[in-house]
Amino acid sequence: MRTFHTGGIAGEDITHGLPRVQELFEARTPKGVAILSEVGGAVMFDQDPETRDRYIVIVDGDDETRYLRPIRARLRVSEGDIIDPGTQLTEGPLDPKEVLEIQGVRACQRYLVGQVQEVYRSQGVDIHDKHIELIVRQMLRRVRIVNPGDGPWLPAELIDAQEFRDTNTELVEDGKKPAEGRPELMGITKASLATDSWLSAASFQETTRVLTEASLNSKSDYMRGLKENVIIGKLIPAGTGSVAYQQIQPMLPDAQVPTAAALFGDVDVESSHDALPADPAEWLASLGAPKSDDESGDEGDKDGDS
Fold it and tell me: EC number(s) in its UniProt entry (predicted)?
């Protein structure tokens, strides 16, 4: 039984299964990471005669960008190819942080969702994209401040992306200089501990440290998330528990709107059928009630007179 499978590509180390999912959700740099081109241009190959190092050179006019080619790396481009920024030059998994930096937020989100789905589908498991997208959204919900402008933050400060957008909108409306920031990709463990809610963070990991820092900094928890509301037994601020839903006033589509004059009898009404009721609630409740014998007789007399 001392049989070892040595097939496949020599020297290639690929992580599969759940370890690959953990690697993606923790935003770790994978082994044998592929090279992404930061610039566009023509592909050329070069070799240093002294060190024997081989390079992939991207030429764009007078500018050259050189990438050291690993010894065992397999190329995905040929000499003379014209490529765009973000093109994958070698085979292998991508670094999500590098994808975010070069190709942007949407490309990073699509890559993470696609790679996680690839793992599960290889095992015959079908999961809807929305479940993975919820996790990826939380991984990218932070922005690192590059230039605070007229905003209230400090350089390199990590803040919530929604707060960043709302504050910048107010700054622009006031004629002030908005802040500049770049999206930050965080693993799910780090993202959970970096939440604004100390109650939510303490329920996840490092409870003692989180509670100690919250008490030393006199932090307040505004209970805006789901987990902290579940912990204290309140309705979560989503669906029927959202503030917008709680403020809805239900109205019947054909209900009459009573006026103060009609309610207090300050107007003369020719017909009792056209008059507004003294108690609108009682009138609404009686709309679907069956008619009495007296009312049916009155309607029959009217039909006979006509």
Answer: 2.7.7.6
